[in-house]
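Sorry, can you check?
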Amino acid sequence: MPRRKRLDPSIFQLPVEKMKAGYYSDKYFVRSREIVLADHHRPRVLMQVFTKAHAFLGGVDEAIAILKLCAHSWSELTLHALYDGDEIAPWETVMTIEGPYDAFAHLETLYVGVLARRTRVGTNTRLVVEAAKPKDIMFFPARHDHWLVQTGDGYAAHIAGAIGVSTDAQASWWGSEGIGTVPHAMIAAYGGDTVLAAKKFVEYMPQDVKLACLVDFQNDSVRAAVEVARALGTHLYGVRLDTSGTMVDRSVIPQMGHFDPRGVNPQLVWNVRRALDEEGFSHVKIVVSGGFTVEKIRAFEEAGVPVDAYGVGSSLFRGQGRYDFTADVVLVDGKPCAKTGREHRPNPRLERVD
């Protein structure tokens, strides 16, 4: 029996006819298919897919959907694959496709592309999740890339362990919705009054929506955090520190001299935590954001900085690794036939896709 249920292909809303026609595919694959068809040549091949990096796999169900819906003869194909979220070793085979080459030749660009994208996002997310444990990671990179990538990226982050995503599109594949905080723009819309903006949030949002408020609008996070907590009491779930990396918060200025005072730094977090606790608001969580990477999160955790959750953005798209995928024909009509160095590497972890 399969280890777990895969996503239904319909959830991906693929442009099936354009994919079948090769519209999104590298032209040489489209022409290769045209040539073997014109030559009435239908070799049965085994295509082997892998990446050269240690990673946490993403995009598998999406790749399967592409093959199921856009192959010219899905019934002639036999597909084996790992699962989204699986930890993989360098060179490990993550998927095999067996069948007549012309049935799926035009799809290589598409399935290796989604595997690369989702694996990069999923791996980068998993790394920050592990660095922050047991703290929560909030997936906030939607504003750093094209809106079309949100759904799949959000699912990759969810599988990797992110506690929340910022848009409904990112949460749609598992039936959830986006989360967020009172943003700077809303505070500005209320004349720069952070407390008033937070009060309006409580007034008009459902009670089950957790209120986390940005408190750096006036570059005085301690004062704003305490004022919002006084005004909202138990209605306030948390405050979010997002001081720019080119700014020094007012509470930090008298303490400068032995650390980098810019942006969201450990001293600023301690200043806010102590101020809230002294006022009796120990229930208020502290969320930090703005330039957080794996390395910065690890540094905060090793120093015991009292952060409750990390909001991470653009670094989840960049990361340090390369997660390109390669697909190679390794068997032709059951016999070894592969580029030198790309021999058939069976993987007992692969499972048959129905």
